[in-house]
Specification:
MvdD-like_ATPgrasp; 5-stranded antiparallel sheet; ATP-grasp ribosomal peptide maturase; ATP-grasp; D-amino Acid Aminotransferase, Chain A, domain 1; 4-stranded parallel sheet; 16 strands; nucleotide-binding; alpha+beta; 9 helices; ATP-binding
């Protein structure tokens, strides 16, 4: 049995499910505890019982699960009839402890283990391990010290530094952008929260590189000049093609995945005019359809085959 911890209208999940040959079920964390059930039993002389009952599906005995795909979960939703704030805090805490315990107790192949997925999203750790794995990364400053930020920017020619956020949250969207004179005028505001500054890497190409266990799929993205700082803003007009990573870069990326404990990740690279491949970041739950569909790369098939293979090996 393959357990997919995600949500039902996730297009990426639907595309993978179409290629699975083993039984699979989706557990949406948002359904727990209001609409989904968990049953755990321990008793002397009896087998342990860890069972999930996803909304609208048959119960799943976790002993039968040989592979878990953990991808972009939604937040738990408490029963709306529970209105008292203290009771809601307690219910959330107990539900979260139960769910985390279930994940840790499910001993099989995970893409990705929740702890690795969480740690793998931390950009500071990514850059540290990427350098240790042999990948080239941009000169970077992450600081809430206005003077340090100013010194970093002014040490480089105009247009030589970009600023970026750790996460592009819906409530406060921030695109990656070149630091301009207006940014310098308000650079004292970095005292309110750390900002990531990186040396601008001139790009011949941007890359989205997807790793599925030990398979590497790379797509080159050639954007129009106005999207040179952040290719995501210009995907509608970009040219996409299959790209072959140099062997050493691919080996270093796989080493990074090993150090982060990731079976899946979608990384962004820049290829400079002289051919250097510079690592920017890895997203443990990153999108792949926008890169795989135009180029024909079989990423959904690779994910399905990986899950099938590990579930079959489980017995």
């Amino acid at each position: 049995m393959i357990l997919i911890v995600s949500f039902h209208d996730n297009e990426h999940v639907g595309r993978v499910r179409a290629h699975l040959t083993r039984p699979a079920a989706v557990f949406d964390v948002a359904d727990f505890p209001a609409r989904a059930r968990i049953d755990i039993r321990f008793a002397d002389g009896e087998p342990d019982v860890l069972r999930l009952a996803p909304r609208g599906q048959d119960p799943i005995d976790l002993a039968d699960v040989g592979a878990v795909w953990f991808r972009r979960v939604h937040a738990m939703e408490l029963d709306p009839e529970l209105r008292d704030p203290t009771s809601r805090i307690f219910a959330w805490s107990e539900s979260n402890e139960t769910l985390q315990g279930v994940w840790h107790a499910t001993e099989c192949f995970w893409m990705n283990p929740p702890a690795a997925d969480e740690a793998g999203q931390r950009k500071v750790r990514q850059l540290q391990l990427a350098r240790a794995a042999g990948l080239s990364v941009p000169r970077t400053l992450i600081t809430n010290d206005p003077q340090a930020a100013r010194d970093f920017v002014e040490a480089r020619p105009p247009g030589g530094v970009i600023r970026k956020a750790f996460r592009n949250i819906a409530e406060a969207p921030r695109s990656t952008a070149v630091v301009d004179p207006d940014d310098l005028d308000r650079i004292d505001q970095v005292r309110f929260a750390p900002v990531t500054f990186q040396e601008y890497v001139p790009a011949e190409l941007d890359l989205r590189v997807v790793v599925v266990e030990d398979e590497v799929f790379a797509v080159a993205i050639r954007s129009r000049p106005e999207f040179h700082a952040d290719y995501r803003m210009g995907l509608g007009s970009a040219e996409l093609s299959v790209h072959r990573l140099p062997d050493q870069v691919a080996a270093s990326l796989l080493e990074l995945h090993k150090r982060l404990g990731l079976a899946y990740g979608a990384s962004d690279f820049r290829v400079t005019p002289d051919g250097e491949h510079v690592f920017l970041e890895v997203n443990p739950g990153g999108e792949y359809l926008f890169a795989a569909d135009p180029t024909g790369l079989p990423v959904p098939q690779a994910i399905a085959a990986c899950l099938d293979r590990h579930d079959k090996a489980h017995g």
